[in-house]
Amino acid sequence: MPSLYTEQHVQMQDALKKFIETEINPFVDEWEKAEIFPAHEVFGKMGKLGFLGVNKPVEFGGLGLDYSYAAAMNEALSHISCGGIPMAIGVQTDMATPALAKHGSDELRKEFLEPAISGEYVACLGVSEVGAGSDVASIKTTARKDGGDYVIDGGKMWTTNGTQADWICLLANTSEGGGHKNKSLIVVPMKAKGVSVAKKLKKVGMNASDTAQLYFDNVRVPQRYRVGDEGMGFIYQMQQFQEERLYAGAGWTKSSMIIQETIDYLRERQAFGKPLLHNQYIYYKLAELQTEVEAVGALFHKAVSLYIEGNDVTQLASMVKLKGARVAREVADWCVQFWGGMGYVEETRVNRFWRDTRLGSIGGGADEVMMGIIAKGMGLVPRG
């Protein structure tokens, strides 16, 4: 048991794993084929059990625990036998709601955070655009003031949960000026007039998760729907990214599970008169991969420990995401290779892992962006 976790952490993980085995995994294959899962149904059940607000304020339905409990639960989500549903849950818990929970008014949190914690509402995050993915400062969506309202125009891309969401945590330009000081986070109900789903995107992996391109045409929302102070949206989003990137790092346990599944397969698979696992090259490579996975886990736990103490972990969270995504890709590729022809068949879990993990080095900030953040933190980026 990692020293970061107590018996209470483990009990909560066990409860979530039991839920996954009864309420999610039996239906994953069906949802993967449909390229969508019933988010309201699944989130509603999770909300009743307290799984969606582990570290959120008690007064809005959360459990009020520190982030280590959220990290433990995020690790347990690796037991879901696909990547798309954990990603969708992560958007709800660690991407669309942290800024609202920390900086939103009580009125706003009552209206949107509370039903997100209960699972009544599905949330999504609106940051990336067609011409602005990892480069958050270059987004074009605008929100101009008109009386007591904001009027929003623009579009968002790669929006997880986008076709099912009840509200979006939207990053928009609320004034002219610098790319870091002119943005605000605004809660926008998806049923508001002028919000439209342009299309549901077909992806190579993460198939059970619906991903949408959204348009905002003269969308009017009250200014009280702004999260925190005007012009602080970029800062809030960067803070929110810490939890998003830590969430990505929690997937290190999935890599370990796939390695073990591969070991079990190779122990039974005979070739040239002996189990494939008895090939020294194979078991040396698996040993090397497991070592890399454990290193990611140690880095993840270090970052979480510092985060719950109130430290800014932008640097470490970026390292966790960079290394975790790259190791997962390496594990997936080698395990598919070792599974041989069966590894190239969609029905195997190792193949699904292979398809799903490729997103890790792209979504939530590409590897190159993570390296830029890390280099900047090391004082390596020249000024100007």
From TrEMBL:
Q: Does the UniProt entry include the keyword Oxidoreductase?
A: yes
* UniProt-listed InterPro entries: Acyl-CoA_dehydrogenase (IPR050741), Acyl-CoA_DH_CS (IPR006089), Acyl-CoA_Oxase/DH_mid-dom (IPR006091), Acyl-CoA_Oxase/DH_mid-dom_sf (IPR046373), AcylCo_DH-like_C (IPR036250), AcylCo_DH/oxidase_C (IPR009075), AcylCoA_DH/ox_N (IPR013786), AcylCoA_DH/ox_N_sf (IPR037069)
The cross-references to Gene3D superfamilies, in alphabetical order and at most eight, read: Acyl-CoA dehydrogenase/oxidase, N-terminal domain, Butyryl-CoA Dehydrogenase, subunit A, domain 2, Butyryl-CoA Dehydrogenase, subunit A, domain 3
What residue stretches are annotated with the Acyl-CoA dehydrogenase/oxidase N-terminal domain?
6-120
Q: Which EC number applies?
A: 1.3.99.-
GO cellular component terms listed in the entry, alphabetical order: cytoplasm
Q: What is this protein called?
A: Citronellyl-CoA dehydrogenase
Q: Which organism is it from?
A: Quisquiliibacterium transsilvanicum
